[in-house]
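Justification of resources, computational component.

The compute hours requested in this renewal are based largely on the per-chain cost of generating structure records like the one below. Each record pairs the submitted sequence with a full structure-token output. That output is archived, and it is also reused by downstream analysis tasks.
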Amino acid sequence: MEYKLPMKVKPPVKKDGDIIFHIDVKLVNKADEIALGLQYICNRYLYGQGYRKLMGDFFDKMGLHSGTLIKPFIISSHVIPQMSFPGDIDFLIIPYENDQLILSKALVIELKIIRAKFIKQQKSPNEYGFSQAKGLIESGFPYVAVMHLIISDESPQSHWRDVLIAKVVDAKSGKIELIETIKKDMMPISLMERGFGRLVHNCPDERIGLLATYFAQEKAGNWLPCGKEAKFNDKCTVGILDKIAEYYYQNYTTFLDTRKYPPIKKD
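The structure output for this chain reads:
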């Protein structure tokens, strides 16, 4: 099933250095879900890696003039008036290509923040987000996923591991040159792998995409997420897709346009 509609209107493009969101510093300091969620979608590289995990071949085949329109933290009934559970949609993501909304590939994500500590790495989350994801499936959204965004403290340096640093010599051939060995805190990888394993083990519906992403704070860099592709929801209808489009048309200025490729610079 493929269903597209004209984009008609487009949010303003946010360039390097532009203000995207204003976030209350109190929410940032306490690592609130909204603050972390907004910071996550502003990290376009990390967001793109997660989107690729959840949408698989579709992402790989997206063309030069394509991208995603992201709306965070929406009251559910504003999109589907009769919808009551879950009460909100953490991320609504509508892909586009050549000024066409690809509504049949729209993705909604249920976000959970996982606050880990070195001394409690084995602790399971209180909630996985699957009940909310099931509600999103029952409401007819075409693709649904649960994302665990992981934050943590740092491991003691005595637990850091030896890793190799490599330099890319030839990007086309993939040739690299090993430079040196350094000590690195590899706990983020362990947390993602463990978290993803729990998601897979507890997931009640194969249609639900799964994503475990480490959100590095300060200068820890980006870590590639663990994920499983979402599958098309057979409860989706054209009526639901039209409601998603109508919501976009009425609120397009509040969506974040994240392109797959940087814009082509004109001479």
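The two ends are 40 Å apart (CA to CA). The first strand starts at residue 4 and ends at 6.
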